[in-house]
């Protein structure tokens, strides 16, 4: 097997398939996203980059699965200190590569799902997942995003890289403070608010800016910025999230 495994382009995962993906903005300056988000005084911050992609159909041998993950990890600069594991649960087989460190964490997964239509009629669909989290150093977000986008192309994966920024404030923010932070971020990014829900219980806002490369359509509107807030009563901390093009994780 060659170093770059060629995957079949089966389509995107169901979550992104629910939203029509509609290309790229013309004028891009994604540094404005990082700059706008970094204007808040956080006690902690992190960025998370994720890939969720279909990876064709058919069987992969155990050695091929591990070689793929090790190859992708090496392209991210990870060549040692990681853990490999494999778990089967019925017709689902997952091979994982994980590495945790003081500056971040990386998880790569290759998942195969069997669909049995008869005793001897078995179809296998494969999926590839990558999640890279970097602590504190938000300036590393865009260089790693570009690297992962290049790897998507090299490995012929059908998908996109999503970016999520998280900042933590050591206090509870009221609704007015959330509005100020959101509106200021949108302004600095050159973004227009498309829709949202602004209450203490649920605060999430969707926007669009020409400064971010990709966008999706939600309710017929272009969206590539998603800002949200959550509050942890036990630690009295407010979490601020910014996703490009949208937030995929719970908050």
Descriptive notes:
- The protein is an alpha+beta fold and about 250 residues long.
- Helix content is about 20%, strand content about 45%.
- It has helices at about 15, 30-35, 60-75, 140-155, 175-190; strands at about 20-25, 45-55, 85-90, 90-100, 105-115, 120-135, 160-170, 190-200, 205-210, 215-220, 220-225, 225-230, 235-245.
- The strands form 2 sheets. Strands 3-4-5-6-2-7-13-12-9-8 form a 10-stranded antiparallel beta sheet, covered by helices on one side.
- Helix 2 runs antiparallel to helix 5 (about 175-190).
- The longest helix is centred in the C-terminal third of the chain and has 15 residues, at about 175-190.
What attributes does this structure have?
ten-stranded antiparallel β-sheet, 5 helices, globular, 22% helix, 251 residues, alpha+beta
Topology summary:
Layout: H1 14-17, E1 20-24, H2 31-37, E2 44-57, H3 62-75, E3 83-89, E4 92-101, E5 104-116, E6 122-135, H4 141-154, E7 161-169, H5 175-189, E8 192-198, E9 203-208, E10 214-218, E11 221-223, E12 225-232, E13 237-244
Antiparallel strand pairs: 1-10, 2-6, 2-7, 3-4, 4-5, 5-6, 7-13, 8-9, 9-12, 10-11, 12-13
Helix pairs in contact: 2-5
**Residue ranges: pLDDT <50 for 5 or more in a row?**
1-22
- What is the element string, with H for helices and E for strands? HEHEHEEEEHEHEEEEEE
Indicate the percent of residues in helices.
10-25%
How many runs of DSSP E, i.e. beta strands? 13
Q: Which strand order does the major sheet show?
A: 3-4-5-6-2-7-13-12-9-8
The backbone outline, from C-alpha atoms, is globular
Tell me the number of helical segments per DSSP (H or I, 4 or more residues long).
5
Strand content: 35-45%
């Amino acid at each position: 097997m060659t170093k770059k495994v060629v995957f079949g382009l089966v389509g995107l995962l169901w979550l992104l398939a629910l939203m029509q993906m509609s290309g790229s903005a013309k004028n891009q300056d994604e540094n404005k996203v990082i700059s706008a988000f970094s204007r808040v005084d956080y006690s902690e911050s992190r960025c998370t980059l994720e890939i969720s992609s279909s990876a064709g159909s058919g069987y992969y041998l155990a050695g091929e699965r591990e070689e793929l993950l090790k190859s992708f990890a090496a392209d991210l600069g990870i060549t040692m200190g990681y853990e490999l594991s494999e778990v089967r649960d019925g017709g689902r087989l997952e091979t994982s590569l994980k590495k945790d460190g003081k500056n971040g964490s990386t998880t790569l997964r290759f998942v195969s799902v069997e669909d049995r239509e008869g005793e001897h009629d078995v179809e296998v669909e494969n999926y590839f997942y990558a999640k890279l989290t970097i602590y504190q150093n938000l300036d590393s977000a865009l260089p790693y995003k570009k690297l992962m986008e290049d790897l998507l192309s090299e490995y012929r994966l059908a998908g996109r890289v999503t970016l999520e920024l998280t900042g933590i404030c050591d206090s509870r923010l009221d609704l007015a403070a959330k509005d100020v932070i959101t509106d200021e971020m949108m302004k600095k990014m050159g973004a227009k608010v498309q829709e949202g829900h602004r209450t203490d219980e649920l605060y999430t806002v969707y926007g669009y800016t020409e400064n971010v490369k990709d966008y999706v359509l939600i309710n017929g509107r272009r969206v590539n910025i998603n800002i949200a807030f959550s509050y942890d009563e036990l630690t009295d901390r407010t979490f601020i999230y910014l996703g490009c093009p949208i937030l995929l994780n719970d908050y």
